[in-house]
Amino acid sequence: MPAARPAPASRPSLSERRKAQTRFEIARTAARLFAAEGTATVTAERIAAESGVGLRTFYRYCRTKEDAVEPLLSTGASRWLDSLADGPARLPTPAEFAAAAARALTPRDDGTEMDVMRGLLRAMEQDPALRAVWHRVNLTGEQSLLTVLTGLSPETDTLRLRLTAVAAAGAIRVALEQWATGDAPATGPGSPADLVTDCMHKLTAGLG
């Protein structure tokens, strides 16, 4: 019998959507500044001012200036989790994992978003607090992926599902980090979407 799909989540209220929009604007501003200048000289006050909010509002949403970027970093994970959840009601094949990941890492604009991501990943090399946010986002994404996979294939043993989640989520993280070390374009050969396909193939080769 096919796995039952989870019930759709209720639509957020207008107030919740406005809060999310404000939080994402703060994240986008912080990421842009960190990518361009690093984190040492960028203050929470500046992020708040360029986001159009007061400092008190900034700290209502973010514990630290590094935490500000978390929603932006989570966006790609959300895209590919949604893509997997909308697929067949079974455990995806390695090829389906790779295709979903490549779609999530394909720029939806002129590449500016990926340029910021590259700068942000490079800034993490000099800021342990920012790097900790990145790893936290990746761990959360891995756990969310495990939840999705369990819903799609509840009869699969837990160990296999956990290994699959670790391999697939790790492939995305490694692809982005590897891309950020060089100057490859956001699309085409050497791009995140191109690299993640290769990473996914290598890391999930024994899990199909």
TrEMBL record:
The keyword Ubl conjugation does not apply. It holds the Pfam family TetR_N. Residues 20-80 form the HTH tetR-type domain. InterPro entries: Homeodomain-like_sf, HTH-type_TetR-like_transc_reg, HTH_TetR. Residues 43-62 bind DNA. Keywords: DNA-binding, Transcription, Transcription regulation. The keyword Transcription regulation applies. Gene3D superfamilies: Tetracycline Repressor, domain 2. It comes from the Bacteria. This is TetR/AcrR family transcriptional regulator. It comes from Nocardia jiangxiensis.
